[in-house]
Amino acid sequence: MAFNVQEFKKEYTKKFEELFAYGYDEGSTTERFIALGDLVRGLYTEEWKSTVEDYIADQSKQVYYFSMEFLPGRMLKSNLLNLGILDCVREGMQELGLDFDEVARGEVDPALGNGGLGRLASCFMDSIASTGLAGHGNGIRYRYGLFQQKFVNGYQIELPENWLRNRNVWEVRKENKAVIVRFGGQVNLAADEDGKMTVRYENTRNILAVPYDTAQVGYKNGVINNLRLWSAEIPYGEEANFSTVEERDDVMRITEVLYPDDSNYEGRLLRVKQEYFFSSAGIQSIIRYFKKLKLDWNQFPEKTAIHINDTHPTLAIPELMRILLDEEGLGWDQAWEITKKTISYTNHTILQEAMERWPEGMIAELLPRIYQIIAEINRRHIEKKIPIYGNELAYRTAIIDQGQIKMANLAIIGSHSVNGVAQLHTDILMAETLHDFFVMYPQKFNNKTNGITQRRWVQIANEALTDLLDDTIGAEWKKNPLEIRLLKAFREDEEVLEALETVKLKNKQRFADYVLKTMGIEIDPTAIFDVQIKRMHAYKRQLLNVMHILDRYLQLKDDPSLDFPKRVFIFGAKAAPSYYYAKEIIKLINAIADLINNDSTIGDKIKIVFVENYGVSLAELIIPAADISEQISLAGKEASGTSNMKLMSNGAITMATLDGANVEIRDNVGDENIFVFGLKSEEVQSYYRNGNYHAYDIYEKNPRVKRVLNMLVDGSIPGIEQEGRDIFDSLVKFNDEYFLLKDFDSYIAAQYSADRIYADRGKWNRMALMNIANSGPFSSDYTIRRYADEIWKIKPKS
Ligand code: KOT
Predict the structure, then answer these.
(1) Of ligand 1's atoms, which has the minimum distance to the CA of residue 642?
(2) Angle ∠(336,339,342) on CA atoms, nearest 5
(3) 3-state DSSP percent of the chain in helix, strand and coil, to 5
(4) Residue whose CA is at the smallest distance from ligand 1 atom 19
(5) Measuring CA to CA, how many Å separate 58 from each of 50, 290, 293, 303?
(6) With CB atoms counted within 10 Å of each terminal CB, which end of the chain scores lower, N or C?
């Protein structure tokens, strides 16, 4: 994009005054950001428009990524970087006497997702545009994002996240593209004039779905795709059918708030309303577009791919069927072939508590026609499969079972592709969780290991590392992330290794400044920064990390002269508000932070920092500062993980169980550049199968484990009472579901080897370098290319 500093300054000054009727020098940070964002949006509208026009002219096949969650993070720098004008704007702002980074922080970070699943969707949106693919997002414009987390006396409290309080400069409301989504009512068959039977919906409650579009700017390639988020409103004109205030409130509630559960499903009516609302709106707008092309319906899958991000948008399947059957008059078989060829599905978890199931009666009442279609899909599935696989297998794969609708079953049966998000995860799906379906449809199953966009997670978050890379290996890695492997050539180069250490130190200092300013805790940037950032969940085992901290504390209390290198344990985690146990662990971590941070005999040897309100923006600050990346979930439980990839790309060394994508990280970096410990997935499976795990025996026989656990209940940690008891019981009395006790010794041993190696700066820096150099394959650009080639069958714009 041609643009110079002088022009920018002129345009910015003008834009600011246009918007606020006074000069930027008088403006607040928020206003300064709004003016800049507004200006930047104006810069790409032309290309946004022409991208759409090209897609129409070329009749390109397009993919629509349906996701209940998107976690884009602040968009200013990312848009500027991708437009190729980041440096120019930074310079211009500086010349205007404004602090660019501060202005950038004036943007609210839209928290329209919970964690990995939503962030993956946003990395994918960036990679789809940046690899020149025609693809768009479809989701919900929540009025309130994921709650803001505060700690009060060490307890998590949740505050509403009113992210739209200032205007959202990136979105464009498109009222003329609104559609009607219908709920409730009755389905009637009626004959038209020619005696043809048509399906009529009566007494439905009609809701207006209004799209808000946000540009997804590709990296220096002129491609600008669309993220379409739907907002529920009261219809006007002939569709208006609400009378009472309660009915109106009901409508607004649909897109009011994001459900705050991660890897756990909420079986509430409102949740399924949200799911149908955005699935239906998305399908309707895709159909509307397709009809403009004036093609045959059989060409629909040649022009359209629809991907569903986990089962949340699965109602897109019966919704597409409904429109093809009832509105477009296709027969069942033709509609079904089109639907299956169009839809593909990603599974993100094997945790049973996360598998969506809806009561049959609830769906029948809320979505009577959709229910009929699901029942018919189910009936035909069983009828077709019995003769081939027998009754038992056919019924085990039924969509409707014991009064419940199983969304994963519908997603698999109604799609042509089912993928897991790391090789181990896909293997477990095929061999265990979805084995029955794998027997029926082996060709549908495939793996697509997750990835991350290094544009946000390296170029934007870690400018110092970006400069170092450019200076050592050139800038090709930015277009072609595999090229980062060129860094390997410098693994014995002391100058580069030292420069890498300096970069890390700078990022650690930046984070230390933040911690001092916001929490009043002083941390030493030369200490090991040991980072665990992810949702608080028992299977992710933050508690194992805590056990290590307590053990280290006890060792130091016994012998203050032990020469452990200094460590700062950094946590960032939100707990679902209703997840009581996770909240108890938050309280426990805050309590041990109070105890240890204020123990003068420990001093700098251990510090604990639990940041409030962890999210994308904080991740951008923490990840570049990390030395150790804690990826310690129980093997077989974490589908993939993506913070593991972000941290390695920034030179942190992984403390890993062989779970999710950690396995592939190990394969890429080699055993000598990662700390691996703990049970393997098959070992865990075998314990579960045989029921021969006895946590109590370990507690009794392992004195270090016993001492650590006793601290939870003997009053040594001020401020916790019931929490300590509950956590102790979960481990000792209720047999430690996630095998923390079993993995404790090997975890401690791995932590000790990290201590030893950290003391050898040259060796540590080399390991860090090798992690960065081997992070290229985890770029979401490659992940997306594989989705495009193997599932969506779409080609990049030439
Ligand atoms: C949430 C509700 C239902 C089903 C699945 C989820 C879910 C899974 N939410 N987040 N995930 C995570 O997705 C990431 C992206 O694939 C994975 O890296 C991570 O392991 C999952 O836990």
Answers:
(1) 18
(2) 150
(3) 55, 15, 30
(4) 641
(5) 12, 13, 11, 11
(6) C
CB 24 within 8 A of CB 103: no
69 Cβ closer than 6 Å to some ligand 1 atom: no
Instruction: Report the C-alpha gap between 424 and 658 in whole angstroms.
Output: 9
- Which residue is closest in CA terms to ligand 1's atom 10? 117
DSSP 8-state secondary structure symbol assigned to residue 701: H
Q: Determine the 3-state secondary structure of 330 from DSSP.
A: coil
Three-state DSSP at 227 gives: strand
3-state secondary structure of 98: coil
139 CB within 6 A, ligand 1:
no
Active-site positions? 348, 534-535, 540, 642, 646
In 3D space, the residue among 251, 231, 230 whose CA is nearest the CA of residue 240 turns out to be 251
Q: Give dist(CA 558, CA 567) in Å, integer.
A: 18
**Under 8 Å between Cβ of 313 and 275:** yes
For the purposes of burial, counting CB atoms within 10 Å of the CB of 481, is it exposed (0-12), middle (13-18) or buried (19 or more)? buried
- pTM passes above 0.90: yes
CA proximity to 39, closest of 24, 52, 53, 54: 24
Mean per-residue pLDDT pooled into runs of 10, the chain (798 residues): 87 98 98 98 97 95 98 98 98 98 98 98 98 98 98 98 96 98 94 81 95 98 98 87 79 94 86 98 98 97 98 98 97 98 98 93 98 98 98 98 98 98 98 98 98 98 98 98 98 98 98 98 98 98 98 98 96 98 98 98 98 98 99 98 98 98 98 98 97 98 98 97 97 98 98 98 98 98 98 92
Identify the residue whose tokens are 């207006």: 208
- Token pair in block for residue 513: 């400044």
Beta pairing partners, 189: 199
Q: Is 67 in the pocket of ligand 1 (CB under 6 A)?
A: no
Ligand 1 touching residue 120 (CB < 6 A):
yes
| ipTM entry | 0.96
User: What is the Å distance from ligand 1's center to 349 Cα?
Assistant: 6
Are 278 and 286 in contact by the 8 Å Cβ rule? The answer is no
Q: What DSSP string describes 432-446?
A: IITHHHHHH-GGGEE
> 567: CA distance to ligand 1 center in Å?
30
DSSP class of residue 264 equals S
Q: In 3D, which of 336, 421, 415 has the Cα closest to residue 787?
A: 421
What are the structure tokens assigned to 205, written together? 């409650």
Ligand 1, residues 117, 453, 540: which to mutate, most atoms within 8 A of Cβ? Answer: 117
Taking CA atoms, 197 is separated from 202, 326, 372, in Å, by 16, 10, 16
Please determine whether the domains at 59-74+109-416 and 454-474+485-678+744-783 fall in the same fold group of CATH.
Answer: yes
Could you give the 3-state DSSP secondary structure of residue 94? Answer: helix
- Residue 763 · residue 501 · CB < 8 Å: no
Sign of CA dihedral 208, 212, 218, 220: positive
Domain range list for the chain: 59-74+109-416, 454-474+485-678+744-783
Name residue 566's amino acid.
K
The CB of 638 under 6 Å from ligand 1? The reply is: yes
Q: Does residue 113's CB lie within 6 angstroms of at least one atom of ligand 1?
A: no
From the candidate CATH numbers 3.30.390.30, 2.60.120.260, 3.40.50.2000, 3.40.50.720, the one assigned to the domain spanning 59-74+109-416:
3.40.50.2000
Write down the residue that tokens 């693919």 correspond to.
133
Domain 454-474+485-678+744-783, CATH = 3.40.50.2000
Q: Supply 786's token pair.
A: 């594989």
Which atom belonging to ligand 1 lies closest to the Cα atom of 346? 16
Please indicate whether residue 593, judged by its CB atom, sits closer than 6 Å to ligand 1. Answer: no
Q: Are 193 and 164 in contact (CB under 8 A)?
A: no
